[in-house]
Each structure stands twice: as C-alpha cells, then as structure tokens.
Amino acid sequence: MLYPIFKLLMKIYFNMYYKKIYIEGASNVPKDVPLIFICNHPNSFMEACLVAVFQHRTLHFLVRGDMFEKKWLAPILRETNQIPIYRFKDGFEKLRNNKSSFSASFDILAENKCILLFPEGSTVFVPWLRPFQKGAARLATGTMDEKKIEDVFVMPCAVHYFNALETRSKVSLQFGEAISTRQFLNSNPDSKDILSDYTEYLYKKMDEIVLNYPEDIQRERIDHYLTDKYTNTSEVLNMGSTESNIPSRLKGALNNIKDYTSLERRTPKNNLLMSKAWSLTLLVLAFLLMIPAGIIYYPSLFLIKNWSRKLKSIEFQPPTRLAVSMVSHWLISIILLIVLIQFFSLKIAFLGLVFLQFSLFSCLLFKDAYQILFAKS
Hints:
Elements: H1 2-17, E1 20-24, E2 35-39, H2 46-53, E3 59-64, H3 74-79, E4 82-85, H4 92-95, H5 98-110, E5 114-117, H6 135-147, E6 153-162, E7 170-175, E8 179-180, H7 181-187, H8 194-207, H9 219-230, E9 240-243, H10 246-256, H11 272-296, H12 298-308, H13 317-343, H14 346-373
Parallel strand pairs: 1-7, 1-9, 2-5, 2-6, 3-4, 3-5
Antiparallel strand pairs: 6-7, 6-8
Helix pairs in contact: 1-2, 5-6, 6-8, 11-14, 12-13, 13-14
C-alpha cells in the first residue's frame, strides 16, 4: 500500500532535489519475468529510490537486517517491500535468519517479480565500480534450482551523480540489457565455479555502463568537464527527468579522455549571452516570488542541510538530507494548512498552500539562475 505512494512522492521530490535526471534504457526492463536489478552503490539508499521510481516494475529490496530492529521503522520497511539480510558483524544468531530471507526472495522471483540488490555489498562514496560479492549470482541460480523455473534475468543499472553533495545537481541513470542466467549457464557447462564465473560476467556487464573515474584524479574536475560539454549547463529551464542517451554519451566521452590532468571547465558559447540575460530576468522574478516560501520553509531546510553535513558517513548525507527535508516539508505544510483554516475558508486556505508550493519552486529557479550567472568559467 505504501509503495505506490512513496514512489509517486519520490518522483516529485527527486525532480525538485535534482535539477536534471538523465534516464537511458528504461524500456530495456522486461515485463512479467523474474528479474534481479543490480546497481552500483555510492550514495546509500538514493540509488534504490532512483531505480524504483524511474522504471515500470515494482521492486523488492534486500536491506541491512539491523534496520528491522527499530520497532517504528520495521512496519514501514515491510510495507515498502524490504527484505532483511544480516551480515557477519550482526552475529551468527542473526545470520541464521538469512535462510528465511533467501527463501522469501526465491518465492518473489518465482512469481515473476523483481528484487534489487547491490553486489558491491556496501555503500562507498566513490565514482567507480568496486568488486562484486556473489549475492546476485547465488540468488539467480538458487531460485532456478529451488523453484525449478526456466530462467532468472539480471538487469544492470548504473547511477552517476555530478556534485552529489549539493541540491539542484545532475544525475544519470542507465539501464543495460537484461542478462539471461539460463543462457550463461548453457554457455558455460564446464565451469568449476559457476557462482564466481557468473559474478565476474555480471561485473563486466556493469563495467560497460558505470562511469569509472581514475582514482587519482579529483572527481570535480571530470564532473565539470562532462557536464559543461554534454548536459546543457547554460539552459536555466532544462530541468526535470527525461529519457536521454546522455549516460552512454558520457561513458563514451570518459573512455576517450587521454589526459585527465589537462581537463578545464569550458562554458558553452552557444547562446550564452541570451542565456545569461534570460537567467538574470528569471533571477529577479524568482526572488520576488520565493519570499513567502523562503520565510516559511527555508529556515528548516537550512538547518537540515547543515545538520546532514555533520553526519560521519558522507554516503548518507544526501539521501538523509532529502528524506528529512521531505518530512519537514509535509509537516510544515500540514501545520500551515491547519492554521490557515482557522482564519479563512478551506478553499482559500488550500489555494494559499498551493501558492506557497509555487513559491518554493521559485526558490529552485532562483538557485538555478544564480548558478548560471555566477558559474566559474
């Protein structure tokens, strides 16, 4: 019940949190087959939400088992299709629970449903693909053995964030081609370690779509180069989520870079003067319209931003900031609506609340226009 509601809300908030979301290959996701989504994992639960929102299948998720120990959180996790998986650090007693979790996962896949897991095994804030664990291969082959089904497909997904720690940044999401486990097994009848071989094969397929930055180069340098060259940096109203081949173009451009140390920011010249003139006009208009929302919503958002930056794990800063901001926005809006109803009719109170959301959107336009006007070239 909660899953479709959360999916709708997350789509709205993602299009506010990020300026642009480039999606490629969502049509590759097959219908009505058992499917395991695998994804790189640099930014905590942000990837899970992005994959869930921007493709048509309903997902189930394998998540840290210790999260279910929080009594207030466990019902929400279950209602949003979360399945607990325990780690060695959780103790051998808890590890025994994984048998029932894998059994539940087998049942889900046998019903032609979907599961998302992160084969890297943990979340680390790095712009490259890390070594895989065998969970995806074990889940795919185990389901076929236990449930006697013909095939389980695996769908590689790649998420890349540009300036991930800031709002109104950009993100790319690419879905690869669905991989047939049966076809791999038939092609490797003499394998002595099928789980290791299949895991290696899945890694190669993921590596084809993940943007892998060199570990010794500052990521901001490459981020700026790619966004300036390929993502219409100077278009202030180029926002929201859209189907695009930008992710594969970025991958091709990254592979063609021969000297990372020579990369420089290059502000697009096409229509730059017109873009800055339009941005200045929009900056003034947005400033006037954003004042009400700035007074009502901004103080809490400012406090949340600064609080999230104090979190020890950088991987949890952006998703926690987004999640807490969503809750704050809803609470303030509900309280404000209750207050307005005390003084005005329900219709006027509701219209006032709608205007405040428009005012809040103007805050986003103001930030976008400001970034274009004062971007470093």
